[in-house]
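Researcher: We plan to redesign the surface later, but first we want a full-length starting point. Tokens attached.
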């Protein structure tokens, strides 16, 4: 059987796509490569980029990963096997891993989460909120927490895109996995803050408490305290953080006292929609009775 022009050019095509250190491509990347090299590769005039991609998948090491989000579908093409986190990281510019995914990367959980949380920050804007009132706090935490609906299933994973608070990527670090792939992820201090703010994205409050326990010896509470001040949340999350530090039973009094120094003006809640809650007078915090 006679070779097609694609078959004849396959060695050069493989060399092109295999030479990129990241080995992860968007549709536009593949399209540009096709347009730029089709004459050199002597591909048929009638060959479309979509058919070219089909041939790549059928006859080379190229694999397609398609993320079907509610309002947009995104495809990524890899040369051979690539870690799922490296692929997901390319979905949004300047994005980084947070919450349960950051817990996993920093070994703050014994679980192997099948959910991946990728955070890309909102634009910077001035806060338009008025002064905090106890009634508004009570009302907000009597309701379910707001959660993203920008979700896609890929292989055995569920990917959540979080359009988080603008922080200027505060506490985001470069992390190199065992294969020396670079990932961007919140550091241990920022991770503990984030999972306190959004336990729903972190396996729930029991997993958050375990993360605080496992973080002992890895985390600087001084650094965490300064970062929390920089983040300037409207809600008094320092009360929940202090509670977790104390409940973990592995932190020194001086570390816990750093959270005790923040003003405790309002009653606060460890999580949303609690029934039969207990109350910590020290932290002015409601928490589940069986916690």
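Model: Full-length starting sequence:
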């Amino acid at each position: 059987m006679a070779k097609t022009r694609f078959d004849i050019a396959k060695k050069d095509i493989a060399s092109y796509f295999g030479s990129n250190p990241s080995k992860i491509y968007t549709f536009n990347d593949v399209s540009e490569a096709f347009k730029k090299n089709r004459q050199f590769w002597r591909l048929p005039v009638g060959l479309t980029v979509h058919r070219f991609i089909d041939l790549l998948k059928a006859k080379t090491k190229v694999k397609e990963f398609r993320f079907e989000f509610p309002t947009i579908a995104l495809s990524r093409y890899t040369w051979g096997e690539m870690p799922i986190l490296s692929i997901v990281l390319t979905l949004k510019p300047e994005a980084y891993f947070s919450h349960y995914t950051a817990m996993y990367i920093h070994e703050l959980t014994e679980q192997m989460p099948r959910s991946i949380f990728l955070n890309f920050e909102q634009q910077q804007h001035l806060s338009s909120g008025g002064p905090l009132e106890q009634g508004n706090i009570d009302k907000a935490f009597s309701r379910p927490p707001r959660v993203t609906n920008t979700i896609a299933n890929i292989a055995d994973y569920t990917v959540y895109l979080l359009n988080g608070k603008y922080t200027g990527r505060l506490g985001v670090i470069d992390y190199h996995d065992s294969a020396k792939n670079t990932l961007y992820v919140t550091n241990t201090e920022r991770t503990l803050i984030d999972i306190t703010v959004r336990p729903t994205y972190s396996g729930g409050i029991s997993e958050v408490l375990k993360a605080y326990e496992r973080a002992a010896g890895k985390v600087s509470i001084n650094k965490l305290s300064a970062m929390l001040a920089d983040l300037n949340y409207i809600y008094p999350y320092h009360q929940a953080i202090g509670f977790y530090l104390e409940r973990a039973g592995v932190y020194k009094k001086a570390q816990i006292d750093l959270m005790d120094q923040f003003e405790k003006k309002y009653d606060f809640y460890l999580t949303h929609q609690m029934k039969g809650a207990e109350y910590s007078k020290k932290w002015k915090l409601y928490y589940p009775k069986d916690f």
